[in-house]
Design brief:
The complex is a heterodimer of chains A (896) and B (116).
Chain A: H1 2-15, H2 17-41, H3 46-57, H4 60-72, H5 75-92, H6 94-122, E1 134-141, E2 144-147, H7 151-160, E3 165-180, E4 183-192, H8 196-200, E5 206-207, H9 212-217, E6 221-225, H10 226-233, E7 243-246, E8 249-257, E9 275-278, E10 295-300, H11 306-322, E11 332-338, H12 339-379, H13 381-389, H14 394-430, H15 437-440, H16 445-471, H17 478-483, H18 494-530, E12 540-546, H19 555-571, E13 575-581, E14 592-597, E15 610-616, H20 620-623, E16 628-631, E17 645-649, H21 650-656, E18 666-669, E19 678-685, E20 700-704, E21 719-726, H22 730-744, E22 750-755, H23 756-763, H24 765-799, H25 801-809, H26 814-843, H27 859-886, H28 889-895
Parallel strand pairs in A: 4-9, 6-8, 15-20, 17-19
Antiparallel strand pairs in A: 1-2, 1-10, 1-11, 3-4, 3-10, 5-8, 6-9, 7-8, 12-21, 12-22, 13-21, 14-15, 14-18, 16-19, 17-20, 18-19
Helix pairs in contact in A: 2-3, 2-4, 5-14, 6-12, 6-14, 6-16, 12-16, 12-18, 12-24, 14-16, 18-24, 18-26, 18-27, 19-22, 24-26, 24-27, 25-28, 26-27
Chain B: H1 3-24, E1 27-28, H2 29-39, H3 51-60, E2 64-70, E3 76-82, H4 84-115
Antiparallel strand pairs in B: 1-3, 2-3
Helix pairs in contact in B: 1-2, 1-3, 1-4
């Protein structure tokens, strides 16, 4: 009953605010009237009686206000009251408030910023229809994963897996040149098959998809991207059906694909392919299973589980091998995996590592603020003791402190969002070009929601620590609290400084974990930089040149152009050497090619002869400084009509000619797909790290650009990377290359200008990012922890100041005193380091996949960062201890 | 002692006194104020107005409840009475208060001894 009334009354106060207000006034008026009447009865005249009554009553307005506050009452309203009280308290201690909010804002802000990356890379659906049904198809050789698909394999997938896959599509990337007036733009082009877009579930904006006939014949039809459609044709409705000239070929535009479309490899990039055109895989002419250069995706048929489709594709590949489709055992396998796993799998470990690290940093910031609050609430301990003895429940006190910390958390969150916004803006500006940082690093609703929950959660959690420490002073301890009042309240009770010490020890432990992680990544990164890529990275620049088929219809035209460009570059005095290559090392993945060694029957147990290939012009190996170990390099005598020649790398030579010279041996190359059909080994060069500094070197062969002919077009490669060795600054080299190319053909576009140093730096961008971020986090953590050590030591010193004075008066030396103080710091440190090491042992496992030639428990790293932290903490403790030894015993004793 | 502490102290005490006063019979605000002055033999000087915030606070905690009644002169006036929860709280606070005052007494006696 009582309770029911209580709630009715609360509701009434909320709903009938003004009436309740009036009632309060009425009630007070009644009181004053009664009081005045009593005075009159005692003999005062009416005026005096009323004045006296008012006087005794006090300020009506003030009490009305207080009554109003009291009415706000419990529950949600108490929260408002507590929050208001907290705000007053926080305003009264601006120093504390500022430092707490700053620490929290830093912590919450960085976590939120990193969360935006986590959210955009690891969560959310991929931009395809029913992405769960999209499979990534990859081959592997001898357990080396992520191999491409060959045209013959694609045709089998398309024809023989219709039960499990509704669509199978493959694609490769290339480039087309769009000329308008005297301006030529190089367009990133996807060469696709007819089922690619349906497999991804992409709907066209206008027009139709390419047909199977167009796909197989390689017809001159074109799908254009929405962005290009807007830029070049003002989104003209009748573009479909038009014929446009690209790379001096007439293409019929059949459709427009959405601007947001990204093929899987492009998914994190800031722009996708601009146009798409048929790949041209003709079932009639494909006979060989080699040449794995295609990317493949498939859509599982409705109602077919992923496991079943994977089983089907793996079984098909096993049948090929069993049927002897591959000449020798190459350890060949095909697998299908969810596209999601293919794209996100490699990102998970580094992103999660960054997120965990930044989470640790937030924990440290929270611990710091909890320590600050604890120190400050010491000042209020007597107030709390009194309140609790006067009936304030322990729950209420905890609630008040937690409300205060939550208010801090909310402010930390607000400024944290500002920090996150700034941090993300800075990150977007400094990240390497080409990626879609705008979307990868953005604050969206999900990120804001996360940040807000984080701020509130943080406030509650770090408030509970001081609240519990305070709550330990119950009503029964009041007497003790009152008794200690004479010695001043600002030095805190010993039990609470134990709490603080525990907090600081925890901070030190967390800091050590971060320091170890950062140290490991630092060492690993240095190992990475020490890796010799096998070629020169200094003073070498490159740019890609693509020759259109219309002006360069014959292979001889292509060959002539590159011969002319490289020789006129080489003729310049500023240029040391020049050459060209199909794919720059460390910048691209290579395709591989099978070969057969003449006069040798492969024993059953020897694995396939296959090697990555490059087509190069003469001068390329010299320009890149790739050492020749044996034989000779390409010369101007190696022409299309002269005998086929090939240069192999050391790995290939040692694999097939261990202990002997391969010079003079002959290869039969990849069947009818390439020319030359046979080639003689003329040289052995040193290995080059092609697919990554940490990747194992694979067997590799260099073919002469003059002799090499593609399997499908029968032409020499039309698009090559021009490389130039010159001491000129990069910008001058770029100008020089542009001028030289333009002098030969003024219409040619040049793209992707970069120095080999940039290429190399780009290949270690993720390890560098990971190392820098963890480094920053670790240093911030150490600063926070050092401040924590200083604070707790200063507190201990403050409390024991009179004891120190006494001891010094009794003859103790200053050194003894500071040793005593440092001993307590050492205990703190020892427990922090012990806990931190345990944490590091458990936590650095997360980093294993990101470490290169460094063990997660590298003793050198662990010992040196632990030492670093110990020195910093001791220095902070020493600084705080100075106050203890500076004390003047005489004055201190007098003041007691 | 800071200003804050004093008001906290008074607040707690005032709550206790109000509950005590209402234990015998329901009263209106002025009646409670008179009764407190009477009971404490005018030692505790409480500004009369401070009673009202306390009444609202106690209502909100569910320790007392109010209804509209009539004064002796027939004026409409709010009359407060103790709830069951209020009665229990009063018992509990009496014990705490006795323990506290006993302890303070003991402290004072001890310091008296030391001085002697």
């Amino acid at each position: 009953m009582d309770r029911l009334w209580q709630w009715r009354e609360r509701l009434r106060r909320l709903v009938f605010k003004s009436r309740v207000e009036r009632e309060v006034l009425d009630e007070m008026q009644f009181h004053i009237d009664m009081e005045a009447r009593e005075r009159r009865e005692q003999g005062l005249d009416a005026n005096h009686a009323r004045r006296a009554a008012r006087m005794d009553f006090g300020n009506v307005e003030r009490y009305r206000e207080e009554a109003r506050e009291a009415r706000l009452g419990h529950g949600v309203d108490t929260l408002v009251g507590d929050a208001r009280y907290s705000l007053r308290l926080l305003r009264r201690h601006p120093g504390f408030t500022a430092s707490a909010v700053a620490a929290l804002a830093l912590g919450i802000g960085t976590v939120t910023a990193v969360f935006s990356l986590v959210s955009s890379t690891l969560f959310g659906a991929l931009p395809y229809a029913e992405p769960d049904r999209v499979a990534w198809i990859a081959t592997s050789w001898d357990g080396v994963p992520d191999g491409g698909i060959s045209p013959a394999e694609y045709l089998d997938f398309r024809e023989q897996l219709v039960e499990v896959f509704s669509h199978v599509g493959v694609y490769a990337f290339g480039a087309l040149n769009l000329t308008e007036g005297d301006r030529t733009e190089r367009l990133r082009t996807a060469l696709i098959t007819e089922e690619l877009l349906p497999a991804l579930g992409v709907e066209l904006v206008r027009g139709r998809n390419i047909t199977r006939e167009e796909s197989e014949s390689g017809a001159s039809v074109l799908l254009i991207g929405e962005s290009l459609w807007r830029e070049r044709w003002d989104a003209r409705e009748d573009i479909v059906g038009d014929t446009i000239s690209i790379s001096q070929t007439a293409f019929e535009v059949v459709g427009v694909f959405p601007e947001s479309l990204r093929l899987p490899e492009e998914i994190w990039l800031d722009s996708g392919s601009r146009v798409m055109t048929p790949l041209g895989i003709d079932p009639g002419s494909v006979t060989n299973r080699g040449s794995h250069f295609l990317s493949g995706v498939a859509r599982t048929a409705a109602g077919v589980s992923f496991e079943r489709s994977r089983g089907a594709i793996e079984a098909l590949a096993q049948r090929w091998v069993a049927d002897g489709e591959y000449p020798v055992d190459m350890g060949f396998e095909v697998t299908a995996m969810p596209l999601d796993r293919f794209l996100r799998g490699p990102l998970r470990a580094p992103v999660v590592a960054i997120f965990v690290a930044v989470g640790l940093l937030l924990l440290i910031a929270c611990t710091n603020v909890a320590g600050l609050m604890l120190a400050r609430t010491d000042l209020r301990s007597r107030e709390m003791a009194l309140r609790s003895s006067l009936g304030a429940e322990r729950r209420r006190i905890v609630q008040q402190v937690v409300t205060e910390s939550t208010v801090l958390g909310v402010f930390g969150g607000i400024f944290g969002l500002v920090v996150a916004t700034l941090a993300l803006a800075a990150a977007r500006a400094t990240m390497p070009d080409g990626f879609d940082w705008q979307n990868l690093l953005q604050i969206d609703l999900r990120v804001v929601l996360f940040g807000s929950l984080l701020a509130i959660g943080t406030g509650i959690v770090f408030g509970l620590i001081p609240a519990l420490a305070l709550g330990a002073v119950g009503g029964r301890r009041l007497v003790r609290a009152l008794g200690s009042s004479s010695s001043g309240a600002n030095q805190g009770s010993p039990s609470r400084s134990r709490w603080r010490s525990a907090l600081v020890a925890a901070e030190l432990a967390l800091t050590l974990v971060l320091l170890v992680a950062a140290g490991l990544l630092f060492k690993s990164f240095n190992e990475l930089l020490d890796v010799d890529p096998g070629y020169r990275t200094d003073n070498i620049a490159s740019t890609r040149v693509s020759l259109p088929a219309t002006s360069y219809p014959e292979s001889s035209d292509l060959v002539r152009f590159y011969r002319e460009v490289t020789s006129s570059l080489r003729a310049r005095p500023e240029v040391d050497d020049a050459g060209a290559v199909t794919n720059l090392p460390l910048a691209t993945r290579l395709g591989d090619m099978n070969f057969r060694i003449d006069g040798r029957t492969m024993p059953e147990d020897v694995r396939s002869p296959a090697a990555d290939w490059q087509a190069v012009t003469s001068g390329y190996l010299e320009t890149m400084g790739i050492p020749l170990l044996e034989g000779r390099t390409f010369s101007s005598q190696d022409r299309a009509d002269s005998p086929g020649v090939v240069i192999v790398n050391q790995t290939l030579a040692e694999m097939h000619w261990p202990g002997e010279s391969p010079i003079g041996a002959r290869f039969a190359l990849g069947g009818d797909m390439t020319q030359p059909e046979t080639a003689e080994i003329i040289g052995v060069v040193a290995d080059v790290k092609h697919s990554g500094l940490t990747a194992d070197t694979r067997p590799q062969m260099y073919l002469s650009h003059e002799q090499f002919r593609f399997w499908n077009s029968g032409r020499a490669p039309a698009s090559l990377e021009l490389v130039v060795a010159s001491r000129l600054p990069p910008s001058s080299v770029q100008q020089l290359m542009t001028e030289t190319v333009r002098r030969i053909d003024p219409n040619l576009p040049l793209s992707e200008f970069r120095t080999m140093e940039q290429v190399r730096a780009g290949s270690v961008a993720i390890p560098r990012l990971l190392m820098s971020l963890l480094g920053i986090f670790a240093i911030t953590a150490m600063l926070l922890a050092t401040v924590g050590v200083y604070g707790v030591t200063a507190q201990v010193v403050g409390r024991r100041l009179s004891e120190f004075g006494l001891r010094m008066a009794l003859g103790a030396r200053r050194a003894d005193i500071s040793l005593g103080v440092l001993r307590s710091v050492a205990i703190l440190l020892a427990s922090g380091v012990a806990a931190g090491l345990l944490g590091a042992f458990a936590g650095t496992r997360l980093l294993r996949s990101q470490l290169f030639q460094v063990d997660p428990l590298d003793p050198g790293v662990i010992v040196s960062v632990a030492l670093l932290m110990v020195v910093a903490a001791l220095a902070a403790g020493m600084l705080a201890a100075r106050r203890a030894v500076r004390v003047d015993p005489a004055r201190l004793l007098r003041s007691e | 002692m800071t200003e804050k502490n004093r008001s906290e102290l008074l607040q707690g005490t005032l709550d206790l006194l109000i509950l005590e006063t209402l234990q015998l019979e329901p009263k209106h605000g002025w009646g409670i104020s008179k009764r407190i002055q009477q009971l404490s033999s005018d030692v505790l000087v409480i500004q009369q107005g401070s009673l009202y915030p306390a009444l609202y606070r106690l209502q909100d905690k569910g320790l007392i409840r109010s209804r509209w009644g009539e004064s002796e002169e027939g004026r409409r006036v709010k009359v407060y009475r103790l709830t069951k929860k209020g009665a229990r709280q009063l018992e509990a606070e009496r014990d705490t208060w006795r323990a506290l005052s006993g302890a303070v007494e003991a402290v004072l006696a001890a310091s008296q001894l030391q001085k002697a």
